[in-house]
Amino acid sequence: MNAPDNSFGRRGFLKVAAAAGGSLMVGFWTLPGEALAAAGAEAPAMAPADLNAFIAIGADDSITLTMPKVEMGQGTYTSIPMLIAEELEVDMDKILLRHAPPDAKVYGAPFGDQFTGGSLSMRTMYEPMRQTGAAARMVLIQAAADEWKVAPDSCRAEHGEVVHAASGRRIKYGKLVAAAGKLQPPAKIALKEPKDFKLIGKPLKRLDAKGKTDGTAQYGIDAQVPGMKVAVVAASPVIGGKLKSVNDAKARKMRGVRAVVKLDNAVAVVADNYWYAKQALAALDIVWDEGRYAKLATGDVRQIMLDALKTPGKVARNDGDALKAIAADGNRVEAVYVNPMLAHATMEPMNCTVHVKADGTAEIWTGSQVPARARDDAAKALGLAPEKVTLHNHLIGGGFGRRLYTDYVVQAALVAKQVKGPVKLVWSREEDIQHGLFRGLYAHSVSASLDAGGKPVAFSHKIAGPSNLAAFAPGWLKDGLDIDNVEGSDIFSYDIPNMRSEYTQEDGPVPTAFWRGVGPTRNMTVLESFMDELALKTGQDPLAYRLSLLGKEPRAANVLKIAAQKAGWGEKLPARSGRGIALMRAWGTYMAQVVDVSVNDAGDVTVKRVVCAVDCGQVVNPDTVAAQVQSGINYGLTAALFGAITVKDGRVEQSNFHDYRILRMAEAPKIEVEIVKSGEAPGGIGEPGTAGVGAALTNAVFAATGQRVREMPINPDLLKKA
Known about the structure:
Low-confidence stretches: 3-11, 30-52
Strand order of the largest sheet: 11-12-9-19-16-17-18
Shape: globular
Structural class: alpha+beta
Largest sheet: 7 strands, mixed
Helix content: 25-40%
Radius of gyration: 27 Å
Distance between the termini: 42 Å
Number of strands: 28
């Protein structure tokens, strides 16, 4: 997911404050919306509670970091503390972490919305977190220097102490917090030079690894509240359907059942435990109003998007006149690609615990990528003011964009509203896959005109499909254009004089959501597969062809060369084996992947190896980068090889992992990740691996079989040996 550019610059203000208990609080505070322009150089007065992304240093030398981002497996609970610890000169094991409470005003920088997603955490937090740590270090040094009556530049910080080298005096941070809290933040923040980094760029074990290994880590589904009941739910089996009636007489007599709650499009059973609730749910006699989509099929959705390709859209990029050049070329190259619908299939299914209290307040326990939205939407459903609702956000067992939405939180609130005491709503795996929000079906038309040497002189990419931004963040639309849906296409790296990228919004009947990798996952798969088509049509090596068009993009060319060299590009392979390459540029990151496959006579594809070169700018924790790339690749391979949500008679056909396949351990390839050392600004890393692997895979399949895959998942029947 992309987002408008919001640099911190004069828009942000550092604040140093003393808090109750004698602690020092330092935070980076950003003004929202229109207030930015009028703010000038002076930050408005604020209480310590107004600080965002702050650190608190206690008189007992404790250091607490309030995490502005959510941990859902991507490693931010290690990488963000590394930024603080680097500049503050403290050891990582001295930092305690706490989840930020839901407050978009306080924790919503730089977009005014408190969310984790879009590979944005390091891109938006790298400078502010370092500045926060450095500011704390500077005021602590100043406080020590004032006490010792020496110049601040004669002191240094190390391991949570300020040291005066000339006299050998040293003092712990905790003894300085009272004096430091009375100082003004430094007018100019002195950040370390990269050559002086002790932590940034170095591999570090995940701080959350122990809890996730020994079982002490708490996810939303682990929430335990005294007196808690458990609810399960059955939603309308047909997309867009409503509840007509339910006979619950049998269910209400079953052991442990406490309530049957009717909602607009679902029925929930509340019981003493999950098993009792599940058994009673199966005993309900439900009649559904199936509505207008009772006969809907995947083919209908597919045709809607193909038809949308024929209608004018919003133009994201228009260099030269690509359409004119292509139309005039009788030998133009054209193709249509289709991306299927996909489920998120997170390890932790949707769940939320809600306690609606008699005193007009409510309490929520869940895992959300948008905690402030979740609280506010639940409050609205309950008819309460947001400040009357307390939300406890937890670690998340997989987000992938699914938990950017609050439907499961609102549903839990509506159920709990009708039940006395706390209720934990848990979606079954079947409910999660069949009634979630899906990656939409998208259609693409690509065309190009080639010169006598085979190079593209004109290139057009037209996309049709749902707009997630229009619903999630309409303010991010640019003149009506969904910038997420064209990401990757709008900055296609190759040197093509006439380049056009266009998007037609067609939301269709299926509820959709962001899905890991978002726009570039779809776009790079199509564009990099088509680049192979162009190279092979002109009899050129796919690597050499790409490099010939990247004279103005040295970072892109570099990752291609590294990945190709590491993979042994050009080596002869056995029969029905293939090697494919693809470039990915998005989220401020450049990535090249080379995939090795073999295809048996039945058409089954085995991915043997993936070699990846990634230039994501300044790396904070290389272990996290490698892990995220590996995770993204396996997630992307899962989708390419097996992933497709299909609809028949208005119903999602897949229900669990037996028919919505996930890449298994024995099927996972060897993955080699080469991280390019770079001094550029940090790029995103949570999604690029997923976005880069699809085209490399299909290009490898073509090299092995001569069959071009333009629609996934890969169909073995297409690849069978004749």
